[in-house]
Amino acid sequence: YYNNVPDGVNPREHKTDVINRLFTQTKDGKYIMNTNDVMFKQSLAVYNKKYSRDEEIGEFYAFQQVIMGSEGGYKEEHQMENAKKLGRREAMQLESMMTQLKWSWKKAMSDDAIMDGEISDPMKKLLRDALNSQNKLAAEGLKMLKNDGKVFAVEDSKQIRQTVQACQQLALALQHLIDLGILPKEEKLTQASLENFLKETASTTQQSNELIESMKGKIRASKN
According to the UniProt entry, which residue ranges have a biased composition of type Polar residues (predicted)? Predict the structure, then answer.
């Protein structure tokens, strides 16, 4: 929607309208994704259709589920179809990342986070924390491009746009998981698959946060 400008519509006005519809500002100044807007619902449908199509042609785009190598007809793919529970070291790394991101994980990370295919309330709270992070980072990135676009080099602007897109895609996946209990690519929801998804989500969020913070530094430097 952001890049598909209808005929006869000013591109800048179209993109501004998309941003204003998808993100609303709360009284305390925070930006949240408006999941009730029809545009969000349609985007979610496109997202689901895209993943269905990608599964058929063997491409994986989200959450670092990318093709790791391809040579001579041999493909090595990093997937989570048969996810294993995180080892102790990986679990500690995940907890450290979630602590830094200020996600409420202590009650959520238990063996009963998934019971009979249902996500526990503490885990849903953790997922909402992760969702809020994506909305906040995407909104900050869009605000930078709108208000401080002239500060950035071409490559910087490209990185911000890519980060915004990654956050928006991850926000859709998290909302889908919270509302429907379905992981990307409709992978079976288990304790192990959820832990692996959280690890990928936390890692991606940290990278996005670092990129946004570095760009904030460039904005501050330009004003000195």
Answer: 201-211
Q: Is residue 200 within 8 Å of residue 177, measured between CB atoms?
A: no
d(CA 63, CA 171): 11
Nearest to 194 by CA among 121, 116, 86, 88: 86
- Dig out the tokens for 75 from the structure: 């493909």
Give the residue numbers spanning the domain of 140. Answer: 43-222
CB 166 within 8 A of CB 204: yes
Answer whether residue 97 is part of any domain: yes
The DSSP H or E segment spanning 76 is strand 74-77
Q: pLDDT tens digits for 139-151? A: 999 999 998 888 8
Decide: 59 and 66 in contact? Cβ < 8 Å.
no
The H or E element containing residue 33 is strand 31-33
Q: Residues of the chain with pLDDT > 90: what percent?
A: 42
Count: domains in the chain: 1
d(CA 145, CA 53): 31
Reported as a single tens digit per residue, the pLDDT across 54-63 is: 443 333 333 3
